[in-house]
Amino acid sequence: MNRSKIIGATALASVMAAGAAQAEMSLSGYYAGTLSDNDGGGLAQTFSTNSFYISYSDSMDNGMGVGLTMSVTAIGIKTDINFDTGMGTIGLGKGQDSAVDSYDSNPGCFSLVNCWNVAMSGKDGSSGAYSDGDAESGNSIAYSNSVGGVSFKVTRGMESATYEPTMSYAAKTSIMGASIAAGVSQVDAKGTGTDRDPNFVTVGYSVAGLNLGYAVYDSDAGSEETTMGVGTSMAGLDVGVQFASRDYTTDTDYMRVSVNKGMGAASFGLDYTEADEEGGSANDTDTWTFNYVVGF
Q1: CA 206 to chain centre
Q2: What is the CA radius of gyration of the chain?
Q3: What's 21-73+80-295's CATH class?
Q4: CA 125 from centre of chain
Q5: pLDDT at 13 over 60
Q6: Dist CA 21 CA 59 (whole Å)
Q7: β 141-147/89-93 pair status
Q8: Nearest 10 degrees: CA dihedral of 185, 86, 92, 50?
């Protein structure tokens, strides 16, 4: 972070501390990076997250709660504001995720870093890939609540030159010990674009020290991925294996083996990932990835 951002964060903290004796504020940061070798092609270094967070919460005069989170990342500054009305939470701001993006994490993925992609075949950018509707939503208005053991969220994106306002719906509950989540985004394109309703379903269950996960990610653009995985802890290590099958123009099968070690403020992991495309071995890949995470 550059010096101006640090000064700005310090000034914000001073103003909040002076104006709200009962307010709560926290600072945190997170860095996640990788070193990867794809089929012996040499090491490549990337990072998936490089963030600094400021969180502030307080109560308004009418008793409602208000919370503000500012994230400073490599791509800019995003601010979220959430109002706890007592009958659910209303979210505004530049960094509000679509409802689906908030709920579609993969319970069958055990990588230290690479689970952010959700589907092993990719998310958003690549051709035909599953989308959570977040990019199409832009800045969203969100409403979330929990009723009868069911947590849910609804978001409305902003209209753009390319898309009508994107609506996104997601919910999560627990049935007989299994954690179940589902959601859909309604992406309506303008002009000659194609309307899509990408959706997901996930199921997670823990038994006898094993964490089991199953998920289906449907892009509604010709691609559907089914994934399952199992993870556990042994000898001080977290280990897991994940399998996935993508039905697309060219079908692809995936496997990932993950071994992770938490060491307090830092964690380290190693992934081995195979991708086998039908019709020959020309596009098959074997990738080793060393992951590291530092946070405070």
Answers
A1: 21
A2: 21
A3: mainly beta
A4: 15
A5: no
A6: 11
A7: antiparallel
A8: -80
Least confident of 134-138, 155-159, 194-198, 217-221: 134-138
- Contact in structure between 187 and 197 (CB atoms under 8 Å): yes
49/296 Cα distance (integer angstroms):
14
Give me the mean pLDDT over the 167-195 stretch.
94
Q: Which amino acid is at 281?
A: S
Residue 104's pLDDT is what? 95
Q: Does residue 85 contact residue 91 with C-beta atoms inside 8 Å?
A: no
pLDDT of residue 125: 61
Nearest to 33 by CA among 266, 236, 261: 266
Structure tokens at 50: 């490089």
Show the tokens assigned to 203: 């199921």
Mean pLDDT of 31-39: 90
Evaluated on CA atoms 73, 74, 75, 77, the torsion sign reads positive
Average pLDDT rounded to a whole number, residues 220-234: 95
* Burial letters 155-194, b for 16+ CB under 10 A, else e: bbbeeeeebbbbbbbbbbeeeeeeebbbbbbbbbeeeeee
pTM of the model: 0.86
The domain limits of the chain are: 21-73+80-295
Average pLDDT over residues 194-223: 95
Instruction: Show the tokens assigned to 243.
Output: 């399998």
As a whole number of angstroms, the distance between CA 273 and CA 110 comes to 12
pLDDT at 165 over 70: yes
Instruction: Give the 3-state secondary structure of residue 114.
Output: helix
- Residue 157: what pLDDT? 93
Q: How far apart are CA 145 and CA 53, in angstroms?
A: 24
pLDDT-based confidence at residue 126 (cuts at 50, 70, 90): low
Contact 228, 242 (CB under 8 A): yes
Question: How many Cα atoms sit within 13 Å of 9 on the Cβ side?
Answer: 22
| Neighbouring C-beta atoms of residue 64, cutoff 10 Å | 13
